[in-house]
Amino acid sequence: MKLTKRLVLTTTALAAVTAGTLLSATVGQAAASQPASQSASQSARPAVDAPAALKVPDGNRLTGVFGAEGVQTYTCTDGAWKLLEPAATLWAKNDRSRRTVALHSRGPVWVSTVDGSAVNAAAVASSPKTGTIPELLLQSTATRGAGMFADVSYIQRLNTRGGVAPTTACSGTDQVSVPYSATYAFYKPAK
Question: Are 113 and 101 in contact (CB under 8 A)?
Fold first, then answer.
């Protein structure tokens, strides 16, 4: 039953994203064709506010900042809650309509709903926060496509809220999804 419910939720989410992708394709094409001078000014943006432990190494430039909302799904393993996967939608921080531009899921992986590009990453540093999941510095392990996630080198998960595993006991194959939100900052090598 849990698997059926999960499949229905995933299918519904994918259908919504597909519809959003069709509606935002023109927006994505317009963003991809920005003049070089506008791209250069974006790379001159000030760095995001992050703890020192999550500083991105020199030689990388900020290329995108996205708000995210979703869930952290935990599964019961040997009587304790263990992270199974995140599932979140991302939107450009300056987009008041919060149009979905990427999906975040197990891997962890981020996939653009605008151009299909993707980045996988692994955590390399963590900064704990009371009452919420930790902020992270992740390093890219692979990228795909020529879009917004092409050549991403580092990702910061910042401004986290929620998403903490339950403190209650669990049994069997129980699963629980806990709402969370965060800001994701993406970096590429400076050229």
Answer: yes
Structure tokens at 132: 């919420």
Q: What is the pLDDT of residues 82-122, one digit of tens each?
A: 999 999 999 998 899 999 999 999 999 999 999 999 999 99
| Two tokens, residue 91 | 């939107």
One-character DSSP codes across the chain? -HHHHHHHHHHHHHHHHHHHHHHHHHHHHHHHT--HHHHHHHHTSPPP---GGGPPPTTEEEEEEEEEEEEEEEEEETTEEEEEEEEEEEEETT-TT----EEEETTTEEEETTT--EEEEEEEEEEEETTEEEEEEEEEEEEESSSTTTT--EEEEEEEEE-PPP-S---TT-EEEEEEEEEEEEEEE--
**32, 39, 136, 185 from 45: Cα distances, Å:** 18, 10, 21, 12
Report the predicted TM-score, pTM, of the whole model to 2 decimal places: 0.77
Point out which residues pair with 77 in neighbouring strands: 80
Tokens of 158: 């910042």
Which CA distances in Å does 165 have to 62, 85, 113, 137, 175? 31, 12, 28, 20, 10
